[in-house]
Design a protein that fits this description.
The chain contains nine helices and eight strands. The protein is of the alpha/beta class. The protein starts with 43 loop residues before the first helix and ends in a 5-residue tail after the last helix.
């Protein structure tokens, strides 16, 4: 662990019981095992880029889709993988993808399959206009869309009656998750009792500026080209898309957010959007056990944004010295170190709730 990935000395503070009995027990995430990358993949860029050259895992068998209608009439799609031995009242894990991702992102599919193999029901969410929901939403996915996550959590509460819910968000999905928990602690659905955020860009402006320097500019170009291509493809189906000037293509993610994301999300500028949607300043408001896992050498979400983080008693920060962005490929036989840590945490939550591990 890095020097600033310190553990909180105080025990987690339980929030008020909702009557469903999901939150009556305090819970503390344990320190992950030491991460050791293989010598040939020890660098941040190797950890980040190498997975793109691997074959994507196939979806678990028997995945069921659910359409969730949002308050404004848009739809998002959930991909439900339920083990045969799962029973009503047992834990559910909701997986939330990052920028440019979907339910088919390798980390989400891989995690879903491993959860199912352990008897844990997993649900992968496609954010607005992403994955299977590409043509089902007039709105676009952005970092301030946390009300969507609230509505999906409520849908899962009705679908999986009496089941506690852990939400695991990756990258921008992680920031979205933290923002939901921090901005609306009194209206977080009763079934949400724990959260895990992996590589969350909790300071969006700092991350965008970081992407404009050094080798990280290649990631910046990758994101903006992909986002611009996807926006132009569905521009006429996006509310307000016809008002966006497409005569000049943005060259950085910050330019894309200034031209497209901010106006479509109702902000005057990219700076205003970043200030409102970044979760970093609000973490002390989080009222449920939450783990943040990041890497100091992350080339997309720079480690320095976590240096002086004020988390409060319910949030624990874990930072490895190496691992890249959502990489964490290990020297051990299990290889996917990140998946193993999430599984270990979920197993602890199951034990805390008296569920089978």
């Amino acid at each position: 662990m890095s020097s600033f990935g310190n553990m909180l000395e105080k025990p987690l503070v339980p929030v008020a019981d909702s009557g469903k009995g999901f939150r009556e027990l305090p819970f503390r995430f344990t320190d992950p095992e030491t991460f050791t990358p293989p010598w040939w993949m020890s660098g941040a860029h190797a950890q980040t880029i190498f997975p793109f050259f691997l074959r994507s895992p196939q979806d678990p068998e028997g995945t069921e889709q659910h359409l969730v209608e949002l308050a404004d009439g848009d739809f998002v799609v959930l991909h439900d993988d339920c083990p045969e031995r799962w029973a009503t009242g047992e834990r559910v894990v909701l997986l939330v993808h990052g920028l440019g991702g979907s339910h088919q992102s390798a980390y989400a599919v891989r995690m879903a399959k491993k959860l199912v193999s352990k008897g844990v029901r997993s649900i992968r969410m496609d954010m607005r206009g992403c994955g299977a929901g590409l043509e089902l939403a007039r709105g676009v996915f952005h970092a301030a869309r946390y009300p969507d996550l609230i509505e999906v959590s409520r849908f899962i509460a009705d679908l999986c009656v009496d089941s506690p819910l852990t939400i695991c968000g990756y990258s921008l999905g992680g920031n979205l998750l933290l923002k939901m928990l921090a901005a609306t602690p009194t209206v977080v659905p009763f079934n949400v009792d724990s959260a895990i955020a992996v590589g969350p860009p909790i300071d969006l402006e700092a991350c965008c500026r970081h992407l404009q320097s050094g080798f990280s500019r290649h990631y910046d170009r990758f994101f903006v080209r992909r986002l611009w291509r996807e926006f132009c493809k569905r521009r006429w189906n996006v509310a307000g898309g016809d008002l966006i000037d497409v005569s000049s293509r943005p060259t950085t993610l910050e330019e894309f957010d200034e031209l497209v994301t901010a106006p479509l999300a109702g902000f005057d500028s990219a700076a205003a959007y970043y200030a409102d949607a970044s979760a970093g300043n609000d973490l002390r408001q989080i009222a449920i056990p939450t783990a943040i896992l990041t890497s100091v050498d992350d080339p997309i979400v720079p480690g320095h944004i976590f240096h002086s983080l004020s988390t409060g008693d319910n949030v624990q920060l874990f930072a490895t010295d190496r691992g890249g962005h959502l990489g964490f490929r290990s020297i051990s036989q299990t290889y996917h170190w990140l998946d193993r840590q999430v599984l270990n945490w979920v197993r602890q939550l199951q034990n805390c709730r008296g569920l089978p591990s």
